[in-house]
């Protein structure tokens, strides 16, 4: 039986070799017709024997290219056109966009084999790619994804590349970034004065410079990295000095998995992430034989490592004496990622000795993604290159909702139909450059995704820049969402949790509905609404933000406010060089001068870290809590300190006795590893105790719990809370696909707005029926 069908394929189906795949399937089953990219995805017209068409459809679904992700296949019978062959036709650029923008992917093994083959005309070519790898999102100017609408438009294909591009049986059939040494982008090696290095082999010269201890700025897929030999202590220390980055761990790139295994204990899940097409930075535990320079990740038991993900990266490791490189973002602290050549030379003057650059323009910069395996599950610290802007699916129409995120680690999120697009990691909205970067990327995605501007969603904090930013856009309505409700809603939406749930939100900062700073909360509710059932006892932050930058101030303020004169004496004993400042803090607290009140997990961790002498002044965000957490070990459970749950209208968790006991241990010279482990267990037990009490008071409540907020990155807290709660018959959910920190905030904000929209629609329908 002869039939004709038209097929619409939606999802990640452009820029992944989908049309050549369809062409080859049609050839395999002797079918005629056409395949075309359009603003809706991929459109196929197919004619032939019914059984062969059905076999085609089965392979279409089950054998799609590795980078593709099919969300929907729509099939309907159509009129026969009596075509006599199968062809790829030019893209259609009209209509409403339903496209999924293709993501950047690590170079594939086939391309690497060709790059290392002396007989191949792309031998040692650092921009080799095919339909299964290479740049995508970072080079796109317009949609649909075709070469004339990318930064490759300035590189006309040579005859050899054109032949492969037009050959339906070739791996590079319609590979938009296709290039070779004759027609494609080229590298240059420049010194710090911008003078080009005269060398027959630039890569070999670069390797020699790195081996000689030089610091290089290297232009990659999504922006510039600063790079040096990770085994050279002098080079790494100099990089830190020049970049003014004294302690924050530096990411490294290792030549191979075997090189990583020399440095770290690599679990199977971590191995898969390292070798995946997304190729993120993976946080792994240092091995006993770890031999990198001490300055790479000082006083840390973990290290962030990635494998080479571009052909250029792989070429840097052709010398076996160079097995591991520092590969850290080149942007100055607080600034967005550097990706333009002129900006790199301006901002990296005095930092980089040489610049390894190329002439393929980066249109959309992206940072490296950062992940860890936490209690056996994926935990995103930063979701960017390799993952963005791949959409999440949602069970309702979210068209026209745009969530602006928060102030720190910010992202934005856009809703279209039943898709949620989370934008790239932007950073902290603290300067004009980062704000400009935010607006540029938001406006590009809004243009590509093409939605009406119905609802803007922002954080409820009146001082966050998004409160001003949203006014630059015309939305029908603006919704404010409480910070920690957004964290809770993100996890609820990710796991599609029906009904209500408890939310344990442990975070650093979030504007509370009572005007105080929240960040140690137990909620009950859903994405649409919540009730606050418990929180941490408030303590003062005299000087506000200064207490965050200098945790010793926070620690002293806690002790003074909780223990009066005894707390004052303990503060002076622990911070003996700060006696005069402590007296001033006491006055500020008593007179309520420039003092806000907070009950947050982040500030609690900061205080204990400072009391233990680990971090009294932070050199980067979260340093005090991160370094304190490094001392905890969940393989042995220690006795908790004292704590108290005060049953008021809202259950209040009070750690005043614990802080006094910790102060006594510190003054007695107790091992800070022991103090950290006991402290961590105290936090866990206090929360579990509160959950049991709340469950007893609310016996009809659902026994489902979501854990979120930035402090849920803490391995000990995350694992021990899950274990203890599950032992008490709670179902526990944690974020796995979006960060639990503020990088996932916009996703949660959109989930809140979608839930409110759905509730309003239901209410309207009910009124109409009544």
From TrEMBL:
Documented EC number(s): 6.2.-.-
Catalytic reaction(s) noted: an acyl phosphate + H2O = a carboxylate + phosphate + H(+); C-terminal L-cysteinyl-[HypE protein] + carbamoyl phosphate + ATP + H2O = C-terminal S-carboxamide-L-cysteinyl-[HypE protein] + AMP + phosphate + diphosphate + H(+)
InterPro entries found in the cross-reference section: Acylphosphatase-like_dom (IPR001792), Acylphosphatase-like_dom_sf (IPR036046), Acylphosphatase_CS (IPR017968), Carbamoyltrans_HypF-like (IPR051060), Carbamoyltransferase_HypF (IPR004421), DHBP_synth_RibB-like_a/b_dom (IPR017945), HypF_C (IPR041440), HypF_C_2 (IPR055128)
Location of the Acylphosphatase-like domain: 4-90
Superkingdom classification of source: Bacteria
Pathway(s) of this molecule: Protein modification; [NiFe] hydrogenase maturation
GO molecular function annotation: ligase activity
Active site: 19, 37
Protein's UniProt keywords contain ATP-binding: no
Class of this enzyme: ligase
Domain YrdC-like: 200-386
Keywords, ordered alphabetically: Hydrolase, Ligase, Metal-binding, Zinc, Zinc-finger
Family: Belongs to the carbamoyltransferase HypF family. Belongs to the acylphosphatase family.
PANTHER family for the chain: CARBAMOYLTRANSFERASE, CARBAMOYLTRANSFERASE HYPF
Protein name, UniProt field: Carbamoyltransferase
Organism: Bacillus salipaludis
